Amino acid sequence: MTASPIISTLNKQTGVATLTFNRPEVLNAINIPMAEALLEAVKALREEPGLRCIVLTGAGRAFMAGGDVASMSGTPEQTRDVINGLLVPINEAILLLRSMDAPIIAAVKGAAAGAGLSLALMADIIVAEENARFLIGYNGIGAVPDCGGTWFLPHKIGSARATEMMMLGRTLSAIEAKQLGLVAEVSPEGTFDEVLAATLNRVANGPTQAFGAFRRLIDDASGSPLDIHLEAERQAFLKIAETADFAEGVSAFLAKRPAAFSGQ
Description:
Lyase 2-enoyl-coa Hydratase, Chain  A, domain 2; globular; 4-stranded mixed β-sheet
């Protein structure tokens, strides 16, 4: 039996889902079957009522070494079909993931290159092992970034740095990526699981619906005039104020105790 290119698991007790890119023999390079499997896995997660956090990770030595370039070497018509076959389901999966309230964590070991970098940047938080490497890679094949790379990277490090990284083909170490603000946590060798678990514990036990509102407001901020954004914040606050987590948070604050959020 052929292994699935995406392994999807959900811990019902914690509400933590893990999506694993599973083509380790090619450093998880994404091809059409993986793209389609990713979309199906994300659609299934969207129906899970107790989802509190989504982890993206890669099997084997890498997070993801980009797209399967070998599949793009045919005629122009074949190449166009491959690109559409890859990007149509991936783009839909990205939009669905970003529409959910559950925070997204990218757990990065080894290379996050090309589409792998874009998918890591799509996450709200990146936890990286000390040996992780982050690179664009598209300029080496005369292509342009995809999977949201030209949207997420400038949002996180600014347009000037993003342009430099893309045009010069810079490779960032985990430490350099943290210094630029791309990575939240860098784990020394041998401690990755512990560092990831600690981050997951904090995020998965947080106010899930408020986290979703955080993301949407931040995503919309740069494209909105201040008056429009202030109104969006007000409306978001009113909506979140109706949640059980908000009531618990206020109660815990007044009682001077830690809040026990349920994600509701």
